[in-house]
Amino acid sequence: MTTWSRDLDCHLDDFGSEARDRYRQTDWFVAQSGNNSSHESGISNTKPGSRDPSSCADAGVELSPAELIEKHQRGIWRYLRMLGCDASTADDLTQETFLRVLRRDNFVQHNDTATAGYLRRTAYNLLVSRHRKLGKVRTVGEPAVLDEIWDRWAGKDLAGDIAIESLKECLGGLTERARTALRMRFAEGASRVEIGDALGITDHGARNLMQRAKAQLRECVQERLHQTNIQ
Amino acid sequence: MNRSNSNDTDFRNDGADDGDPAGLESNQELAIDALLSEVLAGQGPPDLSRQILYELNAPPRLTGVEAAISPDAISAPIVDGVDRQPDQGHASARPSIDIPSARRNGRRTWIGFVSAVAAVAATILLMVWWPRASEVPGQQRIAGAPGSERSVDPSGTAAVDVADGQPGGRSLAGAIRTPAVAPEPHGVRPEPTVAEAVASADATQSPSTPEKRPETLDPASDASAADRVQGVAMAVSPSIDLTPRLPTTDSETDTASLPTSELQPLDRVASQTAKTIESYWKSIDVTPSLALSGEDLAARLSAVFQVEITRQQSESAEALRGRIRDQDASIQLASVWLAGVSDRGNVRRLGESADGLVAEIASCFRGQRPFDQTLRELTLGQNPHSAAWYQVMSTGGEAAMSQRLAALTMGADTRCVRCHDAKIDGRYRQHDRWAFQALLQQSINRSQDGRMQFDVDLVRPRPAFYDLADGRRRMVEPGVAADWLGSAKTLPPPARLTNLRQWSDRLIGSDRLAIGIVNSMWRMMHGRPLRGSVADPNTAAFDDALVRLEQDLASDLVASDFDLGRLASLIATSPSVRRSVPKPLQAGEILMASVSDIEAARRAVRAFAASDHWEPRVSQNQRLAVILKDAGKAMSLPSGEEDTLLAQPILDTKVRRGPRDGEIRRRDAGDDFPRRVDGPPVQWLLAIPELDRQVDHLSYLAGRQQTPKAVVEATKAMQGAGVSRDLLLHRAWWLLAE
Q: N or C: which end of chain B has fewer CB within 10 A?
């Protein structure tokens, strides 16, 4: 099962018995469980309302709101940035996400992973709502896809800190030109034309240079995350 | 601005692959872009705990009209760092977000409704009454551009619309023009009437303004907010300053009363400038180094201007002024100046997108357009190159942009007040700095299609937050502090300015703008501003003559209608530019000179009585390599840079020449490497006990938002090699300097 589907399953009780049973009968859920019959999954054997904490990863003690925020806010913020938000929108929606979740009467912290998934879903929904209200037509990926991508980058590190540290180290492996191009692009907001001018290449060349650099970074970061066993 | 937004048009298809129906690849692209923005642009996740917990524990929020009219919907000042209720009028009225559990109180609803009706009625009455009450008897109306009738206080100076070609000009009568009669550029909408301004102000102040919660600025992601300076009393204001502040009258800092003068002939002003500089050197007991030959001076100017300057043209201000009026020279000079004020480092990094902007500024160098007016248009978004202007000035982020604009437009040095009030130069407060940054952030935005939008009236300002050095949070309203602006002769000093329009109007004829430009132009020529901060390691010694020099140049700039070319020619032909490198600092001599001789030579350099170097400095990589080599560590340089890193200095003293002669001096990376010093770069560093913090502060002083990795690496290496702290700090500064 993917992280997201594990998270969902850990929340099934929250939906009430009718919704829970309906979900467990769907083809999708069956496929995610890896069995032909939902009744054969270990999870489905759990009686309603008597969830087995050990069936969910990272089962732990319920955190206070302050601890919860401290633990998850960086991850949510980075997730929103990954969805294309600028920094101040990510700030706003991060705050709103936590307020929404913490004000829910029936929010239960099953475990860190489940909570993180739940927060991400809430953040995603808030972003989509925001786009609708502002009349923006934005392409945002499907939640499952986004969670898959988040898994690849953050995995068990809910905040994404290890990915950031890995990226910083991987940047050292790029050529000076590639680093210059990326720095101009991200730190200075330079256009491809400007980058090309600075490096003495065409704007198309600048694009290719940065694409290769980013591909190299992705591989490097994935490798490091794999080595630290968080994926 | 959303420079790091992966939806920027320019890069939308950067990594998009065809045949990616699940969107996996394109979303992967977004993911890595977001991570790179964080790592490279320093846009990391802020700590929002406090805001979230506050909101979570706050009393149930009313929505819509109830929030607008709630007796609590008035912001309370934050006193002694204790957060009171935030502005509920801003934070609460979000009908688009479902806030559960909101309680409705019928009685409060009724009272609130009546209050709202009363407020609306009062506003309407005020709008009707105010225009009649504000007219001064005998007030004149001057017809300017169509649709832009303006009024002038008859007690002030009657200005004319230069755009209409009215006789009398602006400055020959010696008057400082009032900003209220700035001509309308590009046919944009006319200046707001007083009634509109009042209505605008009312809208700003109204508690019924629906707005989202206060935005969080991003001050602390680079750890600068965590600095704590030990041993020096902090001057932290205990509350938000709501009272008008009058301009300072300190004789050293009072530039609000520049002597107004008629525009003098250029050579006469040049002669007076030379005398003032020489009297400055005499008063601080500095002996200037030998003067350059005519050929060498022309070569030096050619290198700085990046265009050929002949010996004849370099001999007098008038001759050089004529050269600057040429199209090629003005464009090159505008590029160099713009690269300097934007900290882009070199002209090539301006890019093609700035070509139009450069051409616009070049017309100011040719004397065809007053730069104060051009700047006003650029600021307000009324110029076709406004977007390019802000783009160029925003290198390094919004914090850097606000720093640059404060320095250029108001002569305000805000490097040290990001984290705390200025400790040495008491003019600048952290609160004002963040207010200015908030103003820029909220007034300049990008639309969905990537175009820049300007909210020049900022009808709905949002409070912003910043961190004090001790970790407390403080709220600030966007605006510009009055004592950053100086005074305009015909307008009373306002308490503060609250939008771009008010701020840019004050730029016209501004003495502070003139001072900012003088220092930027001086920096272009000498590598440092004329009157730097006392906090700077390389600042010239303060003296009345130095202040007088700055004021004279600024006065002349104002009198000349902000003719940039005239100012450039004055500075470029001044005695300070003609100075050679003193012997103790020359390549090969520095190793044999005594510490006292070196220090005397450096003192002369600081006072612009000697030159330190003119050739382009070696790269930071090469300088880092010198430091590491000295510390016994190896560093591999990128190809092409290794051959300039030599163990022995070169004794070649040829000066780099301009396009006429392609011979270039081969500069050794270690020519000015600090080897022997007497004390730290600046004494105030002694008040900071930790070395890391000292190095951090040097980085901020160099205009960086955080300590560069190269400097961190160099510091560690030098520590490991047992380099003394004073010498280590000098070398760190050497590494940081551009």
A: C
